[in-house]
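#onboarding

Welcome to the new folks! Below is a worked example of what a typical request in this channel looks like: someone posts a single protein sequence, and someone else replies with the predicted structure as tokens. Don't worry about understanding the tokens yet, we'll cover that in week two.

Example request:
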Amino acid sequence: MPLIELREVSKLYGFGNATTLALDEISLSVERGEFVAVMGPSGCGKTTLMNLIGVLDRPTNGEYLLDNRHVARLRSSQQAKLRRDRIGFVFQAYNLLPRLTALDNVALPLAYKGIGLGRRQGKASDILEQVGLRDREYYLPRQLSGGEAQRVAIARALVNNPSILIADEPTGNLDSRDSKVVMELLADIHRRGNTIIIVTHNPELTRYANRVIYMHDGMIVGDEQTAIGNMARGARRNFFNKKGFTDDDVAAGVSALMHAMPGDKAPKSKRQGPSRRRRTKARKARS
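Example response:
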């Protein structure tokens, strides 16, 4: 039985001639314990899809079942409880409250559950230790690096022990080093049994997923199973073809292609035109 199941789900925004079709009859099933990467161009519906799965929004048409429960049939209070207890969110912009310390930001979801100050701060401290930030408990968001702020956001998402973690461009504002730290943390969370769904434009991040969904114009146009550690073939082909390479180049492997990236010096050919001696002889003959 799938953990997440969408049945011909559509989402429309606006009215009349101003109507925008964000999702077009999408059907999708996600099993427990999967690590799914969702890819596609800007405006293709990725974030809308994440908002529906995370019960932040409702479909215009179709059905959404979460753990075999019809989400639309739940009362607003039940949906809020489901969202709070079952789903963790990580956003590109971190969304930390600027006047709260890292500890208080992580503890905030527990306050909404009515847990006392001492217990929630103790649990938040334990989660911060898991993400390697115990020594940053009393730092404000502005005192943290981008990678540290994102790890605090992940800790906040985990504090309620959700079974599903949704991350929308979790490395979009990070450099390559911090991106790797964040993705390794998500990989570790996945190994513990959590279901992870991330939105990304970066084909390298598909190495952490065991499934890649490709979207275009509000529709799912591809669904690829992939081995963890390998870049998804569809993501690799799409990325390198945009750089001007052929399918044969892509098949040769990423490491080989990197030597031919635009801007690199072309390898010297054994024949690059007449030699210096031959050019000298030619000038003498003309004179």
